[in-house]
Amino acid sequence: MNIPNRITLSRIFLIPIxxxxxxxxxxxxxxxxGYRMLPVTHLVAAILFIVASGTDWVDGYYARKYNLxxxxxxxxxxMADKLLVSAAFILLVEMQLAxxxxxxxxxxxxxxxxxxxxxxAGEGSVLAASQMGKxxxxxxxxxxxxxxxxxxxxxxxxxxxxxILLYIALILTVLSGVDYFVKNWHVMKESN
Length: 192
Fold this sequence. Notes:
Blueprint: H1 3-23, E1 30-33, E2 36-39, H2 40-65, H3 71-94, H4 100-122, H5 131-148, H6 161-183, H7 185-190
Antiparallel strand pairs: 1-2
Helix pairs in contact: 1-2, 1-3, 2-3, 2-5, 3-4, 3-5, 4-6, 5-6
């Protein structure tokens, strides 16, 4: 197994730790961020989430730079992304930091696009992510971090930065999903 795939696996292995930190009744106290309080578990989970999210860029960069792109990596990388983002969003709903309906729309789109990719793979095609899809992912990841960090470092503005980013992520998620299906509809037609 090459280094980019090992980096991707490390992202997958960080997910249960991230889940446990936010799910277990850990009482690590709180820290003050401006006039707001932030549970230390949220801070630790946010740092872990940011590190895990960063491995997506690192494994992709390393794989392209050293020509180490593999079929396993093409499978593991998007799966790791979906698992990490889905886990984070579901936990945000449980903690009442994100509306369930937004998360349902986002996760449903991810399942739909993954399904289309599987159909394409069965036909021998690989469907690349679009630029809009990459922006969607960036806003999803950023919204999770800001929601976990109670909008730090912008909490003094008293603007719901995390929620604003989540709504932008929602819009990009829907638009990129529609774009993805429109551009790749031939895959569905050819699979009949």
